[in-house]
Specification:
The structure is a homodimer.
Chain A lengths: L3 E11 L8 E16 L5 E7 L13 H12 L7 E6 L10 H16 L10 H12 L7 H6 L2 E7 L2 E6 L6 E7 L5 H6 L4 E3 H20 L2 H7 L6 H4 L6 H10 L4 E4 L6 E5 L2 H17 L4 E7 L6 E2 L2
Helix pairs in contact in A: 1-2, 1-3, 2-3, 6-7
Chain lengths: ~300, ~300
């Protein structure tokens, strides 16, 4: 068995507009990298973090990567194993693209690979959720499950955890734009009302069922019609500059559907091909530039693999 | 073109436990029959209703069958067409099995057939919803859509109306038991809270998405795991004698899932075959008998056709 490994884990789009807390998919870029080595020492050490502007803790009990790796080591009965971690952030923090999830998943995939794949990627999900709890105050799975499993994922139930891989149209692409404004996940969650009208919930689960049906039927029209959110988006969109203008631009440029990625501020469109996705990111960036907001953009197929070994 | 027709339209199970107002399926029995004739006269006449214990109005403006046929005639520009209707109720009224829906659908299918199928069955749904509005005070589609289209149906959206036919496992059967207690649909709806916790709604739409996925994947386990309802069932089950005991009996006897049909008091189980369905109805009837409640029972495949011409 090898002693050292370099792993990439992908960014993810949680909620997919109507599926708050239950749907998510992974993309091929951006994502984070972890270099992990087994050491002669005792316990986990974080030797380096790059690309985080000093935002992330090096203390292994506070860092989500090392904390979830520690949970994994406890689980397999090797709590004191010597592990060195380098975390290379290659994506923005607090972007709504599952940044903490990408790091955590890279770390868990790395340790599991180094130790001979004792667990499947799906079995790693609960460990990654522990990391999310540390990062966001809430152990949700709609980023970590797609980051680990690739593709589109449904979290049918949290207690007990029940995760279903969904099919999707082969050519589907995502156009992602991150406007560089600050929306901390915790605050974004707290803005959401804790009670909703039953009739609005019915509208929402009709759309969730429609989106899932559209994915199985590879019916882009149905997928698009189902991508509406009357419960969460009206609140979260307030924090995103010109959200509804961005939607209009994306839909006019040929998007299948458009919405907020996770808790934002990133927005995303689903498209039928790469060209349309590229056109959309260009137009969205242009508009944001015109209101003096810098942005990053990413175009990708839906990721089909989850994390991968780079080296 | 013929001048007279006899039509059967099927009973339906709305909600399917987790899909309140958005899911439903049709069964082969019970159901209602309509005999319809074009006449030389002007307007709609209801000449006979049987099997209703005198509960249904003969007045064509108040009867759901004639009222929705009238909507259809207005729509096609023949508002004064002479039509005679006989309605033969072959299923209990107020049972939660879509009794008004079966009658209405039979009537609409009959007039549409007599006039050369000007509309598809799916296009008849809005006219049938007018009948439901008259019968239940609320124009829902989760009975009329499956009664018209057969099979499993998702109402993704009410405004605009968007109805999707879902696949299902070929051998799936329903075991239905109607305990003869009174639960008017209007009252059953009014018992339901108008506001719900967002976290409960999330649980519910996870299950709706799981049920839809299970139907596409023909995965009975997933279908069964998804058939839980934390929002509506806890209230509606109060009106059904020994509901949770009935569930335990059905699940022990091999049900895939169990719940309330529509607004009750009928209960149903999904099963993998007819034998299990028969065993379940027998045991449920036995238990109800032991607490002095008479019941009717029905076993059927999922209906694959919707309404049919008998004669």
């Amino acid at each position: 068995m090898r002693n050292s490994i370099k792993v990439f884990a992908p960014a993810t789009v949680a909620n997919v507009v109507c599926g708050y807390d239950v749907l998510g998919f992974a993309v091929n870029q951006p994502g984070d990298e972890v270099i992990m080595s087994l050491t002669e020492g005792k316990g986990i050490n974080i030797s380096k973090i790059t690309g985080d502007d000093g935002k992330l803790p090096l203390n292994p009990t506070k860092n989500t990567v090392s904390a979830s790796v520690q949970h994994y080591l406890n689980h397999i009965g090797k709590p004191d194993l010597g592990v060195d971690i380098e975390l290379h952030k290659k994506m923005p923090i607090g972007s709504g693209l599952g940044s903490s999830s990408a790091s955590t998943v890279a770390g868990l995939f790395a340790i599991n690979s180094l130790l001979g794949n004792l667990l499947t990627n799906k079995e790693l999900v609960p460990f990654a959720m522990k990391g999310e709890e540390l990062a966001c105050g809430y152990g949700h799975a709609d980023n970590v499950a797609p980051a680990l499993m690739g593709g589109f994922v449904l979290i049918r139930s949290y207690q007990p955890l029940d995760i279903i891989s969904l099919p999707f149209p082969e050519d589907m692409h995502a156009a992602i734009v991150y406007p560089e404004v600050d929306v901390p996940t915790k605050d974004a969650r707290q803005m959401i009302r804790s009670k909703v009208l039953l009739k609005d919930a019915v509208t929402q689960w009709g759309n969730v069922a429609g989106l899932v049906s559209g994915l199985f039927m590879k019916d882009y029209d149905l997928i698009g019609r189902s991508m509406t959110d009357i419960l969460v988006e009206p609140t979260r969109s307030i924090l995103i500059p010109d959200f509804y203008k961005l939607r209009t631009i994306a839909m006019k440029a040929g998007a299948v559907g458009f919405g907020i990625s996770g808790s934002g501020p990133s927005v995303f469109a689903l498209t039928k091909d790469a060209d349309t996705a590229n056109k959309i990111t260009e137009k969205l960036k242009q508009h944001l530039q015109s209101i003096s907001i810098n942005s990053l953009s990413f175009v990708s197929e839906v990721n089909k693999k989850g994390p991968i070994i780079l080296d």
